Amino acid sequence: MTFAGVRRGPLQAGERVTLTDTKGRRKSLVLRDGAVWHTTNGAVSHDDLIGGPEGVVVRSVGGMEWLAFRPILNEFMVSMPREAAVIYPKDAAQILMWTDIYPGARVLEAGVGSGALTLALLRAVGPEGRLMSYERRPEFAEVAARNVDAFLGTEHPSWTLTVGDLVESITDDPIDRAILDMLAPWECVDVVAERMVPGGILCCYVATTTQLGRVADTLRAHGGFTEPVMTETTVRDWHAEGLAIRPGHATSSHTGFLLTSKRLAPGQVAPMRKRRPAPGAYGADYVGPRPRNIPERLGGAPAAHGEAQQPPAVEHERQEGPCHDDERALRSASGRHADGHAAQPGDQP
Ligand SMILES: C[S@@+](CC[C@H](N)C(=O)[O-])C[C@H]1O[C@@H](n2cnc3c(N)ncnc32)[C@H](O)[C@@H]1O
């Protein structure tokens, strides 16, 4: 039988169901033989659900009605027990597309946290792929393993979960895709790069602009990756009922930023950029890693011993662009840097 990783057939004791009331409020329950869920409108017996199909209406003793369904993946990701913050479905969906995860891919993931992204990745790589997950906190790894088991109802043939710091415990297996969701992904760039196949894709999910800048510049300083692409995803829900058509109230607020970049072939270094960095980007106040593909006089890293000297030609970036003073005015007016980063406490005005 083909592994589907999805529960089907009659509801069984031990699996989770979501009950939704007539006001849209949800309750997540793990079904147990003989158990009873007590509501303000009387009890609901688990036995009324066990053995039956999903999509049924159950009634409490007091006459309240609930619709019962198995949680689908995106519902489970936000309702399952968690220790660490999870990647939300809207971001997981973007990760799967922008990192081009495919059935059979060899994917590395760190950290695992509560296992929300793990579930999405397992589904995408399928039984022919490999998901190598690393989590340095054993108590989080345990929660993730329980969540994966609870959702799938069985072991996934493609999954290995290693408890340990990624840098110390990473194996030598080749990697097609890597997703880093942790506080300091830049610390793991070298070990991932060493094992990633040419054309492989690295994705970092970070919560703050400071982390975003640090990891982007770490990749530029590494030199073996393409210029990173960075995005933030906002999902806006809508309400449509007769003549009342308007944005809903559940629009997601900030969760995190996604950065993706492709691995170059071994020994290759990203070509010199033709565009200057934004003025001041790598100025006197900048203390982070320095890109290898811009000249040193513009803030790039000094050429390593034996490395070809960087060609001097760098085109002036858009002559019509704002000058320094205009930029400062723009920044203070909008609260954002000219390159779009939100201004941070301690930034120069
Ligand atoms: C925000 S959580 C990950 C959430 C997870 N992606 C999910 O969707 O449920 C970040 C996790 O990374 C782990 N972590 C941080 N640095 C790590 C490293 N170098 N190696 C392995 N795990 C790491 C932390 O212990 C934490 O559990």
Explained architecture:
α1 packs antiparallel against α3 and α2 packs parallel to α3. The radius of gyration is 25 Å and the shape is elongated. The strands form 4 sheets. Strands 9-8-7-10-11-15-12 form a 7-stranded mixed β-sheet, with helices on both faces. Among the domains are: 56 residues, Vcp-like ATPase, Chain A, domain 2; 188 residues, Rossmann fold (3-Layer(aba) Sandwich). It has 349 residues and is α/β, with parallel strands linked by helices. Helix content is 22%, strand content 23%. The termini are far apart. The protein contains 8 helices and 15 strands. It binds S-adenosylmethionine. S-adenosylmethionine (SAM) binds next to α3, β8 and α5.
Helical percentage: 10-25%
What is the assigned CATH homologous superfamily of the domain at 75-262? Vaccinia Virus protein VP39
The secondary-structure class comes to: alpha/beta
Pattern of helices and strands: EEEEEEHHEHEHEHEHEHEEEEH
- Main CATH class of the domain at 75-262: Alpha Beta
Query: N- to C-terminal separation?
Result: 63 Å
Neighbour order of strands in the largest sheet = 9-8-7-10-11-15-12
CATH architecture of the domain at 75-262: 3-Layer(aba) Sandwich
Radius of gyration over C-alpha positions, nearest whole angstrom: 25 Å
Bound molecules: S-adenosylmethionine
Q: What is the structure about, briefly put?
A:
The protein is α/β, with parallel strands linked by helices. It has helices spanning 73-79, 89-98, 116-125, 138-152, 166-169, 189-195, 209-222, 324-334, and strands spanning 16-21, 26-30, 36-39, 42-45, 56-59, 65-69, 106-110, 130-135, 159-163, 175-180, 196-206, 229-232, 238-241, 244-247, 257-262. It binds S-adenosylmethionine.
